[in-house]
Amino acid sequence: MQERPERPSSHRNEDVGADRSIGEDRTESRGNGGVVVRPDVAEAAKFVPAFDADFAVLLGPDFENEIELLNELKTHKVTAFTVSDLSTLLHLRANPLEIRTVLEPGFAMEAIADLVWERRHGRVKRIATVATLIQREGWLAQCAAADQDIHGSLHVGNGEPGANGDTQPNPNGNGRLNRGDAPRLTVDAAMLLADQALRAAGSTQACTREEVEAAFTHLTDPLVGSATWLDGSHSAVIILCPM
User: Fold this and answer.
1) pLDDT digits over 178-216, tens only?
2) Distance (Å, whole) CA 63 – CA 29
3) Domain positions in the chain
């Protein structure tokens, strides 16, 4: 796993917006470089009961990164946003559930840094990567099996020796693989394929069974349509298209 980036010590933001669920307080810069010195956190908290809000937000160009201010934000249950914080959320196209995780007492930058890390290296990103590798490697494996099957059938049909010099047809009579002998892309097989691809890409962290099962669920989702279950037991999948 990659290490989380260091969080900047300054916090930038401007202005304050409000709706029924978020109380507002507007701050003015009272320091050098637009830094808000000693903002009135208690005043921001008063908007919660006044507007029947769920959260109180304090916005300003920048805030002093002091323990005293942090403690005051937590005491009054206020979240301090900067311009940079809002810009980051907009660029991430953060959804309401993600924004909800940011609305914790203290500096918003702390939670936003966690959100950025999760987007780039977290569980969702990991499962997306595993699903991509399974689709790619699974398709190649299927193509290799089909190619071997076709060539084996042609050799036997022409009376030519197969790989072992055997000119006799397979038990199914046509030189092709029996349906039951075809390779099956099970969770275990997919784990092996994904791990090989991860190692080839330089990753030292092997995929887990839970990640592969989640990838199977994603790939077989009708809205995705990249794979389908082989049968009703949901023990193996067939990749329907290449990457």
Assistant:
1) 555 667 899 999 999 999 999 999 888 899 999 999 999
2) 9
3) 11-121, 123-239
